[in-house]
Structures are given as C-alpha cells and as structure tokens.
Inverse folding.
C-alpha cells in the first residue's frame, strides 16, 4: 500500500461524516499516520474514545490542529467561522484546510478571510450521508462509489487540491471539480430543496386534525415514508445548510412552487395532457438515473 | 386449507395489482376455483397467457364477467365508468363488485349508479405498489403486511364486505374500514401529494439549463433519487388519481404550499428557530413510523 497521504490528519467534528473518515483511516494505512479527533461535547469525546476510531481525542480545537498537515472541518457549516477563528493562529504553515459541508459559497465566505497566508483552503463536499448522525452513525464504506465535489477557485494551490482529491480517492469516492456557485445551485435542486419539501410535508401532516394525523401515521408507509426518511436528518446541520445556501435554495423553491401551482391548476381544470406530460418528465429523469446506474 | 372464497373470480385489468392478485390465487387454493383475467390490449392478453397466471384470459369484458361471483376493477380509476357500462348487464345476480383504485369517492360516483340491483359494490384500496407496472411487475407477496382500506357506505351489504375483507386477509393484508371521504383525504396527504411533489421536482429539474441538468442527473443520487423513484410510477394511473381526487389533493397542496412558503420566508429572514422547529416535526413523524414499525 502507498505511503500515508498525511502525517497528521485532524478531524474537527466526529459526526456521521467525520467519524466515517476516521474509520476509513483506521482501515487503511495510506491515509494518515496519526488521526486527531476534536469534538465539542464531552459525551462525543468519550464516545469517540470508546469507539477507538482516532489516535488522539482532543477537547481543545486549537490544540487539536497543532502540527496537523490536513485539517478537515466536519462541523455544521454555520459553525465554520467561529471554529476557524479559534484555530487559525495554531495552524501549521503549509497545512491544508478542507471541509465536508453541503454549501460551498458560504465556506469561502466564512473561511477564506480567516485562513492564514501559507495555509491552503480546499473546500469539498462528499455527497454521501444517511438520515443518522453522531459518531456511532459513521461507517468506512459511506463514501464508496459516491461523488465528492471539490470547489477550488483561481487562487487555490494545485498541489493542495491534488492531496484532497487523493484523500477522497482513497475513501473510494468519485471526484468532480466545480466552481462554488455552480455547486450551490446543483445541490439546491438535488438535495436541499428535496429536504425542504420533505420537512414541509411532515409539518403539513402534523398540522392535520388529530384524527387524520393518526391515520396519516398509520398509512404513511406508502409514498410518504420515503419523505419521512429524508426528513429525519440532523436538525442543526440542515438549519445551517438552508441558512447558508439561501439564494440558490429560494430560487429553486420559487421555480418549484410555480411548477407545482401549474400542476395544481391542471388538476383543477382537468387538463389531462398537461398532467401526463409532467408525469412523463419524472419518468425521463428516473430513466436518466437508471442509465447512469445511480438509481 | 379453507374452501375457495369464490367459484369464479374475474380481474378486469392485469397490471401490477391485478396480476399480483392473480398470482396469489395461483399460489393458494382458497381464493377462487377459476380466475378469469380481462385486459384491453392484445399484447397484455398474450403476456398473461404466457405467464400462465389466469385460468381464462378473455378479451371481451362483458364475457369475462359472466358467471363471476366476484369482479375486481383493476383499471385506472378514470376508466371505471366506461368499463362498468359495458359489463353491468352481464353481471351475475348477487355478484360482488370491488376495485383496487386509489380514490374512493370517485368510485362511488362512477360505479354506484351503474351497479345493477342485487349486485354488491364494495370499494377497496390496497395500499401497496411499486414504481413498476404491467403484468410482469406483479408478485404474490405484494400485499403481505400492507394495509387495505375498505370503504363501505350505509347501504353496503355486510356479507359482501366480509367476503372482500376475507379476500384481502388471504392476500396477507391488514384490513381497515373508513368512509370514502376520509379515505380520500388521508391518501391525498400520504400518497397523492407526495407523488405530485415528486413529479414536480423532476419537471423543475428538467427545466434547468442544459448544463445544470446534466449535473442534476449526475448528482441526483443523494436526496433527489428517492423522489425520482416515486416519480417513475404509471402515468395513466396517476393522471386518473389526480383528476379523481381533485378536491382533497388541491386542499392538501394549498396547505403544503402555505407551509413551504412559510419555511422559505424563514430561510430568507434567517429565522433559525422556525427552521429547526420544522425539521424537528419531520423527525417526530418519522419516529412515529418507527414506533409503529412502518419505517
């Protein structure tokens, strides 16, 4: 097996994603010689120690990053700026700082101004996850066959990008690069809007009269069930995602609302052809996924 | 094993649901002595013959129902009235007419006035399905552990209801009874609205600029994918469901739209508490499903 990519890899946050990276680094010797894990709460720190998925477990973020040649932000994107402010003076010169957040414009906005000269910021987004969260939710296979989008900008150091690419390559992922604005637009439609819709339909159902709500729960298994799975994702993470991809998300919600109202109007006026066309387009998108073996 | 429930069971339509009933009746000797299958197209008739899932395959609907003591409408709900008009004079006195449609008010509206005196109409809705359609899509286990909602009205013959209940019981289903209006409202939120949203998000994505659309397809596997599965369901069936549950569906869409706009507004104005509350409610609904072992 190849040489380790990093001498010291520091994970800031050990939830679903962070603990999965830790587990990959435990399984393979070619990721890092030493894995340092930092978490905010004592309970998480204790659990990570019990799980034995990191070499060093460190309660203090500043101390955690000391000497690390790669630091991965695995915290909700809303926490990025505060965490960076506390660690910036302690980052090793030449270190790579990367992240796993679902928004990328906000990562540049929050982290770039605080990144010390000589430290390389390479934002990235592994498009992998489950509806579960916390250090117990992670598993080493999470990233296998999933896309990771790296969003370098003109100033980004190519050697640092290559290192982050190789990190994800060794996690089993397929890597794409994209500019941050395009990334945020794509994930707004493929991921953030679906989550917003799933949260909303659960709220709408929850608001129905007590009797109907009971029925809703009883019969939700058909159709609705998939939405509740999506809707059970981590609240802090998703709150931050929505707030940090506001423009793209609201644009997609506006487009979606226009389209759903048009379909509602067709239902009201019995426009069968319009309804069929919309259903056919759903099938077309699905077929595209099947053709790409992503279904 | 018990005596067959019916001497002659006639399935009008042999798609996903009809062919699954046929397969159950093939596996178990206590459903019917003879299963008659009718389909509209020669291709489907040929395929049903090849599959060998019915004793009699009959192209003429009127001839298919002759002598049957139970006739099951398994056609898109929009076709009910026309099919009933063609078979009504040929129904055996005392026969039970039931159906498997996803709307129940419309079934009463379309079938009750055409049902001959002495024939018993017992609408039912097996809440089971996949995104696939046609006689090859069916399988005998489809109904196992799934709810079937029977919607009798005051005039409905109790003995006929009992027979339909026993039919679904022998298919492995759990049976609930409900009035047709409550049924239509419940399925509007648990099934029809989710499908409308899924079709819509696929159309919205399809409308994005050519470049973004490609990205959408590439990265749809996370979050969006579940929606495309729902969205790939049978177009004719779903067009008919929407058109035949118009009032309840539009009411649920209106409620949903209000709620999604409220969440969008909270995103725009950074109301973190409101957003978190909505996400928490999603988790609560999900937890309800898990507690009921329906997740």
């Amino acid at each position: 097996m190849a040489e380790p990519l990093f001498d010291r890899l520091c994970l800031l946050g050990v939830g679903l994603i962070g603990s999965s990276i830790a587990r990959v680094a435990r399984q393979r010797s070619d990721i890092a010689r030493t894995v340092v894990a930092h978490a905010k709460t004592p309970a998480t720190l204790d659990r990570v120690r019990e799980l034995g998925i990191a070499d060093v477990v460190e309660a203090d973020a500043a101390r955690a990053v000391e000497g690390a040649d790669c630091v991965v932000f695995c915290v909700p994107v809303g926490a990025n700026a505060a965490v960076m402010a506390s660690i910036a003076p302690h980052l090793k010169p030449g270190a790579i700082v990367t992240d796993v957040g679902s928004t990328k414009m906000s990562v540049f906005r929050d982290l770039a101004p605080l990144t010390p000269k000589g430290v390389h910021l390479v934002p990235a987004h592994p498009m992998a996850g489950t509806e579960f969260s916390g250090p117990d939710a992670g598993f080493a296979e999470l990233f296998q066959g999933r896309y990771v989008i790296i969003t370098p900008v003109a100033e980004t150091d190519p050697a640092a990008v290559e290192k982050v690419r190789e990190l994800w390559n060794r996690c089993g992922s397929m890597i794409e690069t994209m500019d941050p604005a395009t990334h945020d637009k794509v994930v707004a439609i493929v991921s953030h809007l679906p989550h917003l819709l799933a949260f909303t339909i659960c709220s709408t159902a929850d608001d129905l009269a007590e009797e109907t709500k009971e029925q809703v729960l009883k019969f939700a298994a058909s159709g609705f069930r998939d939405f509740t799975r999506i809707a059970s994702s981590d609240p802090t993470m998703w709150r931050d995602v929505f707030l940090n991809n506001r423009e793209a998300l609201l644009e997609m919600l506006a487009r979606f609302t226009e389209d759903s109202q048009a379909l509602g109007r067709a239902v009201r006026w019995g426009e069968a052809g319009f309804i069929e066309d919309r259903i056919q387009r759903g099938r077309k998108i699905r077929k595209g996924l099947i053709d790409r073996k992503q279904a």
Remarks:
- Strands of chain B lie at 6-12, 32-38, 56-58, 70-73, 96-99, 120-122, 124-126, 147-150, 174-177.
